[in-house]
Amino acid sequence: MENTEIDSKINMFERKIGRSSNLELLRILAIIMIIAHHYSVHGGWDIPNELSYNRIIVQFLSLGGKLGVNCFVLITGYFMINSKFNIKKFAKIVGQVFFYSVVIMLIFKLFGISHIGIRETAKSFFPIIFSKYWFATTYVELYILSPYLNKLINYCTQKENKILITILIVVLSVIPTFSNSLLEIDNLSWFVFLYLVASYIRKYQHKFFDKTKLLLVIFTSSYILIMFSVVILDVLSLRINDFPIDPTFLREMNSLPMFICSISLFLYFKKLDIGSKKIINSISLTTFGIYLIHDNNLVRSYLWEHIAKNNSFYNSRWLSLHAIITISLVFFICMVIEGMRINFVEKPAMKFWDREIESKFLNKSRNYIDRSFSQHISN
């Protein structure tokens, strides 16, 4: 039986009993790591040039952010390889980004929280075009490219796909890691690569993908390597003037250890058998919204510097507790807000889409194109 037939049977089975929650749980873990990353990198810290426990804690909290991003893209590639471009889903994604971008801008403007000029207003109304959220813009670009990537993957043989992935990992990860040029790689290029990797995993069932204990060891080892590199590079950067390597450079999403870390974690969760849990799947639906709320460029500094007051806890023994409570609150509050948006905005909007746009406009357009094409052929 071909993989496409197997996947179609799996999809039908999932619709009957509910989608398996293993990768949905990974989405939740990923967004928590991303929030922790933002707690660290946007905290407005005034960090002295000395090694301390709290300095290491702040740096450790930043390590999971790009791991979370990689997992999100891998999950997308895994599910999208056997899916077609869906204009309704595309509109839903763009509409979600637009909603939070505009609503947050209006709230900040009406309450005078921040000065909103013409430039910021324009960015808020066209968030994808102006890349107000770098991840959202790159994700939309990837979604548009997905039908062509699927054709490429399905056209190539397994050997050709393997060679292509090998070339890309060398160019996009191995060389940049050892030449300290990780930030020079374009985000879309990396997302396309992860999409190809996840698609390969879905299309070709390799025995290595099922070794859960080994995968857990690989994940743990690679993550510990990244953590140790922070401490070692910290010591070197404090002792050597103009040290050329940032202590957290291995946290970048395309670093070789982070790639290994991401793949092993993804494969581990892929094999995790927890069945279908409604609560996990419901929370998972809010993860993209959680990102759009808390990492909006207007919310970002106001949240971490003025509400959470991260920097005031830098010299406190309660920093770790502050981080846990703050990250948890951001997650739960944003989850509730996104849940409300889904129920009171998105669901009515999608009903309107089905009733007015899909049935009256899109179907008529398709019928018109089909008729025109048939007439052209007959002539």
Automatic annotation (TrEMBL):
GO terms for molecular function: acyltransferase activity, transferring groups other than amino-acyl groups. Residues 22-337 form the Acyltransferase domain. The chain crosses the membrane at residues 21-40, 60-81, 93-113, 133-150, 162-179, 185-202, 214-233, 253-269, 318-337. Keywords: Acyltransferase, Membrane, Transferase, Transmembrane, Transmembrane helix. Coiled coil: none annotated. This is Acyltransferase.
